[in-house]
Amino acid sequence: MILRSVLFLSLAGLVPNAFAEAPGPPRAPGGEDPKKASVSIHRYAQCPSPEGRREAHKVAAMVRCLGGTSHYAGLLLSAGREFDIDPVLLAAVTYVESSFRPKVTSHRDARGLMQLRPVVLNVLGVTDPWDPHENIMAGASYLRTCFDRYASEPESTFLALAAYNIGPGPVTKLTRSDAAERFVKKVLSVYNRFTDSPIPIRPKGSKLAGAKNSSARPGRQ
Question: Which of 80, 90, 116, 211 sits 20 to 30 Å CA-CA off 139?
């Protein structure tokens, strides 16, 4: 908890940044109801199981389809278990941020697979941002703090992804950012291609509305 508090204090004052952009993903499936906008986040079993093996094959196939390697799929699965985040969502974020290029740097100096800014790298103690394992684990940790911060808000998935992109802050900051909205739409477009539970993408200019989303909290469906 202390580390997460320090992370948000360090990031809260940052201005929006532009990450390295991947090629635009295909259009997402239809549906625009913000009440349904939530990512299923759950704890993955540590021991192999039929469900776990299916999940592993699914993520590996997704990563290969998007141009990554099976090694990255394994790291995303490990990060999903550690931080209670759907690895399909982590893979979507990674693709949009870097197209699975581990050495990419943005003009804002965001680095690596998940395009982490220097302040995030410093707070999380990342020593080598070009190392896929360190970068993915740090990116998942950062995204987890974003989910935790906005878990009680309507459309918490939109807010968490927006905060990951431009830095945490008031809801109004996140919902009024065109850059954040573009990022979220790209991530969810990719996510929706590879999940059985697609998330409607919030249309531009819509108001945040709907039931509070509890599925973004660890251990809750």
Answer: 211
Q: What are the beta bridge partners of residue 105?
A: 111
Residue pair 8/163 in contact (Cβ under 8 Å)? The answer is no
Domain spans, the chain: 30-193
In angstroms, what is the C-alpha Rg of the chain?
16
CB-based burial label for 57 (10 Å; 0-12, 13-18, 19+): exposed
pTM for this prediction:
0.75
d(CA 185, CA 194) in angstroms, rounded, equals 15
**May I ask the CATH architecture of the domain 30-193?**
Orthogonal Bundle (1.10)
**Residue positions annotated with a catalytic role:** 97
- Cα 114 from Cα 133, distance rounded (Å): 11
With beta carbons less than 8 A apart as the criterion, state whether 164 and 39 touch.
Answer: no
3-state secondary structure of 170: coil
For the stretch 113-127, pLDDT in tens is 999 999 999 999 999
